[in-house]
Amino acid sequence: MPGEERGSDEIANSTPASHTTYIYIIRCGDGLKQRCKIGISGSPQYRMHHLQGSSPWPMTLSYFWAVPRGLARPIERELHERLKARRVRTHGEWFKIDPGNAAAEVLRVLYARGVLMWPSQEETDANPSCNSATAT
Question: Is the pTM of this model over 0.85?
């Protein structure tokens, strides 16, 4: 399910539509050595498997969100700019950040750009499992 951490077996057996663009977070390593890659791809599963081939450490596709194709690159740039203090190298898409914290930053950008919407009060009342946050 988009926005949730997924296992490699589930990822290998799923194929997203080729016309969809995704913002993704790939985790590599753990503990103090944990790094996250934040990028865009038409197939985050394929992208992770491609990167895994050149990495000595296991990778996990932690999160991904479908976004309008025209907004994917600007959203990616904004995320990289917001997280530049955590960048592993001067340039690149790898950051020293926990996947959950990276996902929170992605959600802030997606909500701010109107790609995702906060649930309305009616949706929240009808579905108690919805977060009851409201946009300000």
Answer: no
